[in-house]
Amino acid sequence: MKKIIITESQLKNIIRETFITGYDDDDPMNINRQNPEKREVDLSTLRLDNIKQGFNKIYLNDINVGGFVIETIGDVHDSHNHKVYKNSIFLQGGFLIDQEYRNMGIGRKVIKTIFHNNPNIENIFLYAIEWQGAVNFWKKIGGEDMYVNPDNGLHFIKIKKGV
């Protein structure tokens, strides 16, 4: 496999272009206000296939509206606090949602669906970066900071079952 090396600046640009869903419209860091009319969608039609390590698709009315990547299912090692959390998921990044479906509650519904469909899962972990604008979303749905790097705005966030 060929390795591709990119700079931090290039990575930031890629992330800004693909952007992760769930941004709070009141957040001044939100540079991704793609759905200003807030049209209604029927979230009861949201469907996830059985979650697995790797890429997972998100469906709404059987239309693929996005996805997310799971790096780990099982034991998540918190290297910042030197703890191991059993029965957990580590998301690689957040959610990637098609622009026309952003800011409709899909992110919150996906988290609830993961916990509902996988009763053994107790926690979901992920990293979020302040300049992306999603930190407030993750906190709004019950995420808590387990670690924050003040130098680069990197947050290690834990979402517990039942939030």
Task: Provide a descriptive summary of the structure in words.
The protein is α+β, with helices and mostly antiparallel strands and 163 residues long. The protein has a single domain (8-160), classed as Gcn5-related N-acetyltransferase (GNAT) (Aminopeptidase). The protein has three helices and seven strands. The longest helix has 12 residues, at 106-117. The relative contact order is 0.19. Mean pLDDT is 82; it is low at 18-35.
Could you list some keywords that capture this structure?
Aminopeptidase; 7 strands; 163 residues; 3 helices; single chain; alpha+beta; 7-stranded mixed β-sheet
Brief overview, please?
This protein is of the alpha+beta class and 163 residues long.
Write the layout of secondary structure elements.
Blueprint lengths: L7 H11 L27 E3 L5 E7 L2 E16 L4 E15 L8 H12 L5 E7 L5 H6 L3 E6 L4 E7 L3
Parallel strand pairs: 4-5
Antiparallel strand pairs: 1-2, 2-3, 3-4, 5-7, 6-7
Query: What structural class should be given to the helix and strand makeup?
Result: alpha+beta
CATH topology: Aminopeptidase
N- to C-terminal distance: 40 Å
For the record, what CATH class applies? Alpha Beta
The appropriate CATH architecture is 3-Layer(aba) Sandwich
Q: Approximately how much helix is present in the residues?
A: 10-25%
Please give the largest β-sheet. 7 strands, mixed
Strand percentage lies at: 35-45%
- Mean pLDDT metric: 82
Number of strands: 7
CATH-defined superfamily: Gcn5-related N-acetyltransferase (GNAT)
User: Counting H and I runs of at least 4 residues, what is the number of helices?
Assistant: 3
**Biggest β-sheet: strands ordered side by side in the sheet:** 1-2-3-4-5-7-6
Q: What spatial form do the alpha-carbon principal axes imply? A: globular
Radius of gyration equals 16 Å
